[in-house]
Amino acid sequence: DAERRLLCSLFLAAALFGVASAATRRHDWDISHQFASPDGVRKLAVTINGHTPGPTIRAAQ
Predict the structure, then answer these.
(1) What is the pLDDT, as a whole number, of residue 19?
(2) Residue spans of alpha helices (H) in the chain
(3) Per-10-residue mean pLDDT for the chain, 61 residues long?
(4) What is the pLDDT, as a whole number, of residue 45?
(5) pLDDT at residue 44 in the model
(6) Residue 4, burial from CB neighbour count under 10 angstroms (0-12, 13-18, 19+)
(7) How far apart are CA 9 and CA 7, in angstroms?
(8) Residue 11, pLDDT score
(9) Contact residues for 38 (Cβ-Cβ < 8 A; gap 6+)
(10) Which residues lie below 8 Å from residue 33, measured CB to CB, with a gap of 6+?
(11) What confidence score (pLDDT) does residue 32 get?
(12) Do the beta carbons of residue 44 and residue 33 sit within 8 Å?
């Protein structure tokens, strides 16, 4: 029974450590409509910080 409690305690501690060590990242983006020529033809495009295409976003849940 003591071994089971120890194992459960270690598992709980590992689970809580994984949640507590997750990184939070913040990005400030200026999203607007501007004229651009991404394909050689000038047209209205959605830009992020004045650039099109915007940055690649990779996320994991």
Answers:
(1) 58
(2) 2-20
(3) 83 70 80 91 92 83 72
(4) 92
(5) 94
(6) exposed
(7) 5
(8) 81
(9) 45, 52, 53
(10) 44, 45, 46, 47
(11) 94
(12) yes
Distance in angstroms (rounded) separating the CA atoms of residues 25 and 55: 15
C-alpha to C-alpha distances, 4 to 8, 18, 25, 47, nearest whole angstrom: 6, 21, 38, 56
| 45 secondary structure, DSSP code | E
What's the pLDDT at 2?
83
- Give 3-state DSSP helix, strand, coil % of the chain, rounded to 5: 30, 20, 50
Judged by DSSP in three states, 43 sits in: strand
Spacing of C-alpha 44 from chain mean position:
27
Alpha-carbon distance of 39 to 46, in angstroms, equals 14
